[in-house]
């Protein structure tokens, strides 16, 4: 099968592969810049930019390197620097950003990303009904929501068209095998009718009703055969996150990469999260500490996501997601939270982004 370029808004992505946005610090300048350089769409994660380059851009940091409040956890200055460095790698090729809808300061971070030079914004972790308003001053920036059902896409298109006179430039359909936060309740992630192969075709049909909206399949996609299967089901492209962790250019710590290289299939589970959605990652020492009631004390220094309600949800699930993801980025094996998709255990080597893109396009 020949892979056709993927058009999103005014941007043409040579190879129909989007690298999933992974925070904290898994997909920043080096990974995103190199994926775009190699003809895919590199995606910078806007989550936790305040810890970039050892917190040098966060204006206020408290003990153990915790950025104080959302304006420092989502550092504008750091985001600009990440984009600047990524552009040095990929030039003027399309470059994206992933901004969770559930974050504190969503509208501000969207504007910051637009000003920093994002061509395409991808948003999930909630149905981003107000996304067009946040980006209204930047008409050239393509907007791509993440949905998990045809009903969600229909609701979103109706609201966007009525309120903003706009439709999505593309839509990502994420099945429940992805890493990080899911679009389904815990028990629904396991149901056959919610798997990517089942939800993709109805969303493709719904997208057609609203015009020529490209549909991008995500969640559990691993190799060329998976990509071909998604395209046969009607997708125009795919989004992949976990496999890009296994690259030299991935911004994750060496310790993070090693956790995935060491992981077995049974180590990868769905966990409760302060964000209000189940999340998939590697079961590590953090979860042992939570079960034993010995997890780090929750103080909510960064105020990272609105659904957590300043640490109230974190106390219920037993950990602070900002602190735990930051610890994973810092390579702290005892307290880090290591997100991965369901196929993370299949990582067995570290290769270059160039080599990975060649494998995905031409086969193993």
Write the layout of secondary structure elements.
Elements: E1 6-8, E2 11-13, E3 17-19, H1 29-37, E4 42-45, H2 52-55, E5 61-62, E6 66-67, H3 70-73, H4 76-90, E7 95-98, H5 106-116, E8 120-123, H6 131-134, E9 142-147, H7 150-164, E10 171-174, E11 180-181, H8 196-209, E12 215-218, H9 224-232, E13 237-240, H10 242-245, H11 254-262, E14 268-271, E15 279-282, H12 285-291, H13 312-317, H14 321-329, E16 338-339, H15 353-362
Parallel strand pairs: 3-13, 4-7, 7-8, 8-9, 9-10, 10-12, 12-13
Antiparallel strand pairs: 1-2, 5-6, 11-15, 14-15, 15-16
Description:
- It is a single chain.
- By secondary structure, this protein is of the alpha/beta class.
- It folds into 2 domains: 6-252 and 347-362, TIM Barrel (Alpha-Beta Barrel); 256-339, no CATH class.
- Helix content is 36%, strand content 15%.
- Strands 3-13-12-10-9-8-7-4 form an 8-stranded parallel β-sheet.
How many discrete domains? 2
Supply the helix-strand structural class: alpha/beta
Instruction: Work out the strand percent.
Output: 15-25%
**Shape descriptor:** globular
CATH superfamily of the largest domain: Aldolase class I
